[in-house]
Amino acid sequence: MRPVRAWCADSEVHVALADGRVIATPLWWYPFLSKLNDNQLNDIELMYEGIWWTAVDEGISVKSMFLGVKAPGAKAPEKVA
After folding, report:
1. Which Pfam families does the annotation name (predicted)?
2. Helical residues (DSSP H) of 1-81, grouped into ranges
């Protein structure tokens, strides 16, 4: 589950893995990212089993993305009717 590339687009965090898979999770799962601009969102450091945003000194593991683990305080956006 080693990440080789990561980016944020279309309200999602995307991670390409060494085995060729690409996974994505919603940005709202990670409230600590909510105040970052596009440049900061895409200033991502790859770790052996996760990714890290230097602007907020926070990161997520690839495993948590697979398991659907949201960060504390994550709330789904309200749907517009």
Report:
1. DUF2442
2. 38-41, 62-67
Residue 80: inside a domain, yes or no? no
Burial class (CB in 10 A: 0-12, 13-18, 19+), 71: middle
Tokens of 73: 């305080």
pTM: 0.92
Residue 51 falls within a domain, yes or no?
A: yes
Question: What is the domain range of residue 37?
Answer: 3-67
Question: What's the pLDDT score for residue 80?
Answer: 75
The answer to whether residue 73 is domain-embedded is no
pLDDT digits (tens, 9 = 90+) for 13-52: 999 999 999 999 999 999 999 999 999 999 999 999 999 9
When divided into structural domains, the chain yields a total of 1
Beta strand pairing call for 50-53 and 44-46: antiparallel
Listed in order, strand segments (DSSP E) in the chain are 3-9, 12-17, 22-26, 44-46, 50-53, 58-61
